[in-house]
Specification:
six-stranded parallel β-sheet; alpha/beta; single chain; 45% helix; 8 helices; 16% strand; binds farnesyl diphosphate
């Protein structure tokens, strides 16, 4: 059998359009989208995917109307508190990437609890990108390195690629093998720019709330068909 991707990253897009097509409020699209999060996490676990990274909230998303941002935060808090036991039962570790200090206290509390509770789980790692921006991740890292070199008075400091890997939020995670983006958009949207240098990209017209296990398997199958050249 062809190899499974070790790490799948997903840009979950199309919740708003899904809701609009049904004349429902946008938040209903996000709520259905969070059900897909649960379904796809379970499917990945059953299929034997080791790492799943979901772009759940970008830094750009802070600019959405406050009602929508608040609704998304409530969904996150609900997911983190209500699905904690399910993550534990399935031995799924939770990790987060992004500027989490910008998250409201109520979300941060549940996030910290779930990360702590699942820290020993080893069957799969679910990574949530929250308040994430790849450019700010890289900018922050460059600034840190400049400060470090200045503090050491080392003007001839040379940075190696592995050092960058070690200082990103994704430290210790393998780079994604497969990126899936739903809803027919063909962009990377400031997601894991450094980490996706060699990632296979897969785009589907399906809106995130309609994405299901069969769609996931289709994407994996497509990945397996592609010849990987580095
Ligand atoms: C894009 O849809 C999706 C988001 C901005 C957020 C993704 C969030 C969830 C799936 C729910 C909460 C997450 C978890 C982990 C419980 P869009 O609003 O940009 O859709 P549109 O492009 O059709 O308007």
């Amino acid at each position: 059998m062809s190899e499974l991707p070790r790490h799948i990253a997903i840009i979950m897009d199309g919740n708003g359009r899904w809701a609009k097509q049904r004349q429902l409020p946008r938040l209903e699209g996000h709520r259905r989208g969070s059900e897909t999060v649960e379904l796809i996490t379970e499917s990945c676990r059953e299929l034997g995917i080791e790492y799943l990274t979901l772009y759940a909230f970008s830094q750009e998303n802070w600019n959405r109307p406050s009602e929508e941002v608040g609704g998304l935060m409530d969904l996150l808090r609900y997911f983190l508190s209500q699905k904690r036991q399910k993550l534990l039962d399935n031995e799924i570790r939770l990790r987060v990437i992004g500027q989490v200090d910008r998250l409201p206290e109520r979300v941060l509390r549940e996030l910290t609890k779930t990360i702590h509770a699942t820290r020993h789980c080893e069957k799969m790692t679910l990574v949530l990108a929250l308040s994430y921006s790849s450019r700010s991740e890289l900018t922050e890292l460059i600034n840190q390195m400049i400060r470090g070199a200045m503090a050491e008075g080392d003007a001839s400091r040379v940075v190696r690629e592995e050092e960058i890997d070690r200082q990103l939020y994704t430290e210790g995670l393998p780079d994604p093998d497969l990126l899936i983006r739903t809803s027919g958009e063909h962009r990377i949207s400031n997601f894991l720019l450094w980490q996706m240098a060699y990632t296979e990209l897969y785009f589907t017209e399906t809106l995130w709330p309609d994405f299901d296990r069969a769609e996931l398997e289709k994407a994996i199958h497509e990945y397996q068909k592609r010849e990987r050249r580095f």
